Amino acid sequence: EEASRLGHRAFAALVEATQKCFKEGEKEDPRIWALLAEMVLFEGDAMRAKRYAARAVEIIRTDQAQNQDGLEANINVFQINLRADVLFQYARTLVANKQLDEAEAAYREAIRFVDNFNELNKKTQSRFAGRAGEGAISATVHPSARLGLAVLLLRKNGDADEEVRKLIDGLIEEAEKSGEEYRCSAGKRALGVALYRLGSKRMAKANEMKVRKDGKSGLTAASMTEQKKSEEMMNRALTMLKEGIDEARDEAIPMFDRENCCSKDNDYLALLSYGLLLTETQAAEKPELALKYLQKAADCLGGLAKAPIGLANNIAALQSRMDCEAAAKTMEQCKKNIQASGSAPPSTIRFNDARLAEMQGLFAEAESKFRSLIEDHPTCADAYIRIGALEQRLGKYELAEKSFEKAIAVAESLGMYGEPTRQDAVSNLISLHAARKNYPLFQAKLEEAANKGGDAYAQVSLIAFYLDCLPSTDETRRAKMLDAVAQRLQKLIKEHPENAYAVLQIGCYFAEMGALNEARDAFAAVIAHPMAGRSAKVNLAHALVDIAIESIDKEISEDGMLNVIATSSLDQAAKLYIDAIETMRREKLESFGGSTYTEFCFYLAKCFYFARNYDESLKYMQKCILLSPMYYS
Fold first, then answer.
1. Can you tell me the distance from the alpha carbon of 375 to that of 372, in angstroms, rounded to the nearest whole number?
2. Cα torsion at 547, 552, 557, 558 (round to 10°)?
3. Which pTM was predicted?
4. What is the pLDDT of residues 344-368, one digit of tens each?
């Protein structure tokens, strides 16, 4: 009530000042009209606010027309600040009236006034000396002018993202110069969206650079540099979006968001970008987190019925990892949206619809949908892969092999754009040969794929194959295979330094070489990885047991007790094995990190035996015999 009373008094005073100017024939002060516009806009009357602001602009334009003799002689910092503030207020009213192109022009003019004056002031500072220190003072425009322009530019579908980044980064730098933290949630969201879109473009550029002069795909120095820049942008986008979204949720609705008709679009773009980033980085481990923000993005538009088809499709894809029934409902809504638009279903929608049927166990329906998709889109290599997987499931190995080979051929015809799918098809073909126990062909295909530049998956698979073969080879062949593994690991880490599977295989290599501490450290480095982490956890436990055994062999205390290293290592290993078993039970898994429940019982029996906990060791050995009596001897 007090704020309202003071506001009305201020409004009355401004009106009185205006009337006095008219009565006494004095020159109108544009600040009065600008303040009136700001107050009326705050009350929610956008049209009247625009009229007041337009009058203020008219006054400064008249003054500007009368001062064409040069900035140095006729204008000072105060006048520049006044013009910039009037144009800023005018831009705000234009935004409130949804005249966005005009608002963009007004924001740009306000910013240009200030930037041009400051640049000229720097060049001619000596000529301003003696004018009450004016030469040392910089003109300023309200920070929301740059922020408002940035938010407006986001609507241009990425064409002005670099300008958005520069605008917000400029605000952050100014805050840091003042020793303050930049805490504008709208600015952080805008910057996050721009960085995400710029990072995506850089990643696409990096992929284009992977095509070498010989036409083959592979990593180049330029592509690695571009990929690194893209990852840096994506990481910063993730930080900005998280902070901006969290701060906007925790704070009362700020003035900027209340008056800005683009704020809802900014919210939508921020939630969409954050959800897509989480899909790319954390969906394997936490699909529910990415889904949460994509659903919020859809809610900004009025729900799934009004959401873009691509967004609904992404939501269905994430839901399918947790709840196929919910995914099916979303997909049905997606189909209704497509039907209402009168357009043909995109191939991505049709593919995900077929994939959903496959995940629901409707294999015949899924295969029919994949084949129908291929008839209309013969270059959809992913559909051939899924058909091959369905045929393999039914034991139709020859047909599955042909489907995977067809997928490889189609993907190769697409050049660099088909490279990820080609690698996926190759890995499926390799797995098929392994399932058929055709190991010579399996090894040949692995080596062929691994020797083709850029295929990290094939490199890792071949290294794992070599390491798996070591127990059955003689010493001479073992030494050669270990040398081959070392060479391939060096190449793989050089080309893919952040590949978790490569680090996992380095741990296995160290374990085979007897460097147990190094193996332990390698496994521990990737234990939190959403995909490689489970194998790393099991291998870390194995390494800890081996470290304990080695320690026991070297040193036993005089009273016959285990040394500290052995005790600690065995305790950690037992916890890791038990945690894996609990995860298997909770998630109803048949195996964890490549090991079954029976194998974990054996690992624990061994672990407790060396820990001299013979009762627990016997208990787990009895479980092994009960579960697998054929191995009792």
1. 5
2. -170
3. 0.69
4. 888 999 999 999 999 888 999 999 9
